Amino acid sequence: MERINIGANTSLPMPVTLIGSIVEGKPNFMTAAWVTRINATPPYLAVGLNKARYTSLGIREKRTFSVNLPGTDIVRETDYCGFISGKNADKSKIFELFYGELKTAPMIQKCPLCIECRLVDVYEMPTNNVFIGEIAAAYTEEKYLTNSELDIKKMNLMILTMPDNHYWAIGEQVGDAWSIGKKLIKEKSD
Amino acid sequence: MERINIGANTSLPMPVTLIGSIVEGKPNFMTAAWVTRINATPPYLAVGLNKARYTSLGIREKRTFSVNLPGTDIVRETDYCGFISGKNADKSKIFELFYGELKTAPMIQKCPLCIECRLVDVYEMPTNNVFIGEIAAAYTEEKYLTNSELDIKKMNLMILTMPDNHYWAIGEQVGDAWSIGKKLIKEKSD
């Protein structure tokens, strides 16, 4: 099998999120996919944003932000928040909002999962800032739960891939983590 | 709509990857999902690993690592590499390997996408280390391309969700990023 070098600017499948903050007194949302958990205890998230982003101002000022996971039903609004800057347009009225215990991290009613974070640190990278947030709380609704647990099938979250720039639904279940690999141990010992 | 606080230890849909390194002279692979791009130029990736991980030794010593994206066909091997430590088992023979320009970042032949990274920095978090790698190159095969571009539909990559701990396939295409949201601008101006 011949391997083809496709260059360095490649990407992974990424979660589609809307980062909420209050910037210059107004709730604002921007689409972001460079988001991951980064520490287990306490629970930290990292969000990589281009340094020019309007959202950065709000996160630094209020020292809080939210990570909202939209469903496929609001793909157009989600995409819009990625290329229209809060510098040029008021994005505070696109969604119905709510607030949690941090009070200054606006969250989106329509998102199946909304996470509010306290800013822990900012790492300066060459072109991006990485905001490290400690998760204060995460919110969902009864309709996304099965047996009191989040049910991914009910949430219709989205994945982004680049550089092809497509949004994808989450598909079929492939297996259980920390479980399906145990069959290999069994086979080896058979 | 009543929002339910489900606590702080929540997660996002995450890419399933196998982190490759040479530890104590042997190629080793561990499953990781706390992985994201973190800087645009140069292209950096961040990988959050528990501090006790055997893989950390190898990355620090060789200052290189790989991020391999497995397809659903090797879900069992992928899962196995997540709960069996290289301290206790030789994982160098599970996969057929190849090397790229960095020479010390082992990559997996069977993975549709393999990314090799040069270590840039390590951020120490309370329970995890965050390895920042600059992408040196990414490798695929002809069969995963359409019109010379990576074709996600041909790759069968996986997503992990926690705390439900399921692996998922990538599903249907929902829309084009930096595009589908433009319909909102049109509607507003109509």
Compile the SSE list and pairings.
The structure is a homodimer of 190-residue chains.
Chain A: E1 3-5, E2 14-15, E3 17-23, E4 26-32, E5 35-39, E6 44-50, H1 54-62, E7 64-69, H2 75-83, E8 97-98, E9 107-108, E10 113-124, E11 128-141, E12 145-146, E13 149-150, H3 152-155, E14 158-161, E15 166-176, H4 182-189
Antiparallel strand pairs in A: 2-14, 3-4, 3-7, 5-6, 6-11, 7-10, 8-9, 10-11, 12-13, 14-15
Task: Please describe what this structure looks like.
The structure is a homodimer of 190-residue chains. With 190 residues, chain A is α+β, with helices and mostly antiparallel strands. Chain A is 16% helix and 45% strand. Chain A contains 4 helices and 15 strands. The first copy, chain A, has helices spanning 54-62, 75-83, 152-155, 182-189, and strands at residues 3-5, 14-15, 17-23, 26-32, 35-39, 44-50, 64-69, 97-98, 107-108, 113-124, 128-141, 145-146, 149-150, 158-161, 166-176. Chain A starts with a strand and ends with a helix. The model of chain A has no long low-confidence stretch (mean pLDDT 95). At the A-B interface, strand 1, strand 2, strand 5, strand 6 and helix 2 of A face strand 1, strand 2, strand 5, strand 6 and helix 2 of B. Strand 11 of chain A pairs antiparallel with strand 1 of chain B.
